[in-house]
Design goal:
The structure is a single chain. With 500 residues, the chain is mostly helical. The protein has a domain at 287-500. The chain contains 20 helices and two strands. The chain has helices at 5-8, 13-31, 38-58, 76-96, 107-126, 130-148, 155-186, 194-208, 212-237, 246-252, 255-281, 288-307, 313-333, 337-367, 379-382, 384-398, 404-419, 422-450, 464-482, 485-494, and strands at 65-67, 72-74. Strands 1-2 form a two-stranded antiparallel sheet. A hairpin with a 4-residue loop joins strand 1 and strand 2 (72-74). Helix 2 runs antiparallel to helix 3 (38-58), helix 4 (76-96) packs across helix 20 (485-494) and helix 8 crosses helix 11 (255-281). The model has no long low-confidence stretch (mean pLDDT 88).
């Protein structure tokens, strides 16, 4: 039984705190506009509201509960992702504080917009209805368009925002069109039990069809509607063929936001995709698992092949992010609780790896230029700690043991092997091949840092806060590569409602 609006408010408290934080940060930022500590005040307020949201989340009941008359659900899956989003948002705020890409006068806007995105991310993974899922996804998208173009008077940033808007608008239109078809076939926008209604529609329509061609058209309509909905979610996770926006946006957006964009919206997309698959697709007589498997193979292969020739580190990591979306899709293609657990585990590990890699790029581009490959030459002698941390992040993204990336990929491949089908094993082999392939372009960066020599021998003055964050991410990559059982148990607990 779902709760009414008033009874639901206390379950929605973390998002309400962050919504209030968005307004407070903007208001206080205007009131202290003349203060030399304006930037620090904005960062402090944003972190304070994120801490309050985290504490409030920890006090929520653990038993699943539908709220707002069934529009949202509070359960272990939503709670797991809430913690992930609040952490990623807080780290993105800390990464922006010393950045030269975001001026002190605009730090309040940046922090407020990040808090607004965090609310949208939570809505995506907490949605039990297509309407609220769309609201959450659009809130994330619209605010992201603004942050992608946040570097004023920067041509690359303006181009990134424009491309993001155009691709995002098309993806949202396709998704809404697919949702309208689903509503027409099931009579509901709820994702709870929609698979049974969709199966009932297919059975009735097939029985009433006058010809085999008409019966086949019904299944085509169902498949097409699901693919259209997948377009919107696929755009958010940057999977093939909805990945085209990713390299340009990652390159043009401010580096701290690019780091956030590569982790949090991707996690929210997969959180929503799992709910959509479990509630709407599972049990419907369509080859959904095999379709996801094909998308996984195409996504990881295209991302890795395209990254081979990149010399701009932000574009290289953008294609790497596309490839990692393919790895994560392997867990969904396994069509099992083990696969869902592997997705949740990998997303947490990916936060440490990818935020750390983008932070290292931000350190070099902040002090050197644009973050292209030749700027990393001789980095081991000019900023040794940054170079060592970057090498750890890149080897972890490759999946080299005993780093965290190996653990994540191991469980994704294990989920496919446990599924037992021949095509599952073939997809696992494709994933392993792509991991080996990715080593080439990651190793190019490591070679530039530790083997190549640069004509510039000036030591880089890295801010203390950046060194602290690099150490934090590097510690997570190493520690979770060795001691991962606790995190694995959390991932398993989050996916308990998807058990078959």
């Amino acid at each position: 039984m779902s709760l009414g609006n008033l009874d639901s408010v206390r379950f929605f408290a973390p998002e309400l705190w962050l919504s209030a934080g968005t307004l407070v940060v903007l208001l206080v930022d205007r009131l202290v506009a003349a203060s030399p500590r304006r930037s620090q005040i904005a960062v402090g307020l944003a972190l304070a509201f994120l801490c309050v949201a985290t504490v409030t989340t920890s006090q929520l009941p653990t038993l699943p509960q539908q709220i707002f008359n069934g529009l949202l659900v509070v359960d272990p899956w939503a709670t797991f992702f809430r913690y992930l989003f609040w952490t990623a948002t807080g780290l993105a705020v800390l990464m922006a504080a010393p950045s030269r890409e975001i001026s002190a006068g605009r730090m309040g806007e940046y922090c407020a917009l990040l808090l607004a995105i965090a609310v949208g991310l939570s809505l995506m993974t907490s949605s039990a209805d297509l309407v609220t899922a769309t609201l959450g996804l659009e809130l994330v998208s619209i605010v992201s368009y603004a942050l992608a173009g946040f570097r004023s008077r920067n041509r690359a940033s303006a181009e990134a925002a424009l491309k993001y808007v155009l691709y995002g608008g098309v993806a949202s239109g396709l998704m809404l069109f697919g949702m309208s078809w689903l509503y027409g076939m099931t009579g509901t926008t709820s994702m709870v039990g929609a698979a049974e209604l969709l199966n009932g529609f297919v059975s009735r329509s097939t029985a009433a069809a006058a010809t085999p061609e008409a019966a086949g058209a019904v299944k085509v309509a169902v498949v097409l509607s699901l693919v259209l909905v997948l377009s919107g979610i696929g755009f958010k996770v940057a999977s093939v063929p909805w990945h085209m926006w990713c390299p340009d946006v990652y390159e043009g957006a401010p580096t701290p936001f690019t780091a956030f964009l590569s982790v949090a919206p991707k996690a929210a997309g997969f959180g929503l995709l799992v709910r959509f698959t479990h509630g709407v697709v599972e049990g419907v007589d369509v080859p959904w698992s095999a379709t996801i498997g094909v998308l996984a193979a195409l996504t990881m292969t295209w991302g890795n092949v395209a990254a081979l020739s990149q010399t701009n580190l932000k574009r290289l990591l953008a294609y790497s992010s596309i490839a990692h979306a393919g790895y994560l899709l392997m867990g969904l293609a396994a069509a099992s609780t083990t696969g869902i657990e592997a997705i949740a585990l990998y997303l947490v590990l990916y936060l440490f790896m990818n935020l750390g890699a983008f932070l290292a790029v931000g350190v070099v581009s902040r002090l050197e230029g644009e973050g292209v490959l030749y700027e990393f030459r001789g980095l081991s002698s000019r900023a040794p700690f940054t170079a060592i941390a970057m090498a750890l992040f890149l080897f972890s993204l490759t999946g080299v043991p005993p780093l965290a990336g190996f653990v994540g990929k191991f469980y994704l491949v294990k989920a496919l092997v446990d599924a037992g089908g021949q095509w599952h094993l073939a997809l696992a082999l494709v994933g392993l091949f792509n991991s080996v392939l990715s080593l080439y372009y990651y190793a190019r960066v490591v070679k530039a840092m530790f083997v190549d020599r640069s004509s510039n021998t000036t030591k880089l003055e890295v801010p203390a806060s950046y060194n602290f964050l690099l150490g934090f991410f590097a510690l997570g990559v190493v520690a979770f590569g060795i001691y991962f059982e606790g995190l694995k148990r959390l991932a398993s607990a989050s996916a308990v409602m998807f058990s078959r």
